[in-house]
Amino acid sequence: MQPPNFSQLKSLPQTRENSSSIVPFLLAIGGATATGKSSLALALAQRLLAQNQGGVILSADSRQVYREFDIGTAKPSARDRQQVPHYLIDICAPTETLTLAQYQHQAQGLIQQFHQVGTSPLLVGGTGLYIEAVVKGLRIPPVAPQPELRRQLEALGQPYCYGLLKGLDAIAAQRIHANDLVRTVRALEVFYVTGQPMSALQGEVPPAYPVFYLALDSDTAALERRIVQRTQAMVAAGLVEEVTALAQKYGSDLPLLQTLGYAEILQYLQGDCSLPAAVDNIVLHTCQFAKRQRTWFRNRAAVQWFDADAGDLVDRVWQQINNWSQVNLK
Known about the structure:
Layout: H1 16-21, E1 26-31, H2 37-50, E2 57-59, H3 78-83, E3 86-87, H4 100-116, E4 122-124, H5 128-135, E5 138-139, H6 147-156, H7 158-168, H8 170-175, H9 181-194, H10 198-201, E6 203-204, E7 211-217, H11 220-237, H12 239-250, H13 262-269, H14 275-298, E8 304-307, H15 313-328
Parallel strand pairs: 1-4, 1-7, 2-3, 2-4, 7-8
Antiparallel strand pairs: 5-6
């Protein structure tokens, strides 16, 4: 895995104003897919640039970290990246796995570097746990996925695994639903790799710098329209060709090809459905995913919500940031 590239830091403005009088902070933008997080981030980053506070974007998307998966993950365009530097994109090969702990380590390192030169970065994406890991400073057990161990545990069945977890880590078992196989297996995985209960390795170490955390939302009908438009744009941009090339290069069993947008097109390529049916399935599954994202972000008490469909969205957010900065950046 390639380390993050810090070379662009040398070109960031380092004036007296941004190095002494302005307190660097983190601007986090979350929300469901297709709510316009990236376009808002670009507009805000450009305003930060105009105020000599830098203006760079750190991606908080669990699939944009992988190279070659471009159209289906809605990566920023080359033009967007020229306007504002983007980080934590294309840092892994598709055959690698980036853990949450690894993402957090790279994101925290970048934020520290940017703050040292007076730059306030934006952390932007729909992977809520990525954002949470940074803004809350989650303590994450540094245990990479263990595929063989997971298969063995899953073969035992959830009732047995959950009973096992209650005996090994009662605190973790209380936090995990009795039917949640994924989290149960993860807790057992951490125990067997480290020899310590996962509950003993978790916790929070909040960052010392100020954080403005906002999320975008859209009513259900409007969000579905956005998802339809984006899906159609992806297909027009070459999503079918992208999936074809990836399947030929890595094989159709590549885990990333089983994810949203790619799995449906792969079914079309394998002759299991028509292209219109695949597109309809992408829209359906994306709407279902967006609903889960909205629920997740709404359970975050510290988030300030904004209407993604407001005509003056950028001005509203910018005003709220300015109001917040008067209190928190002194």
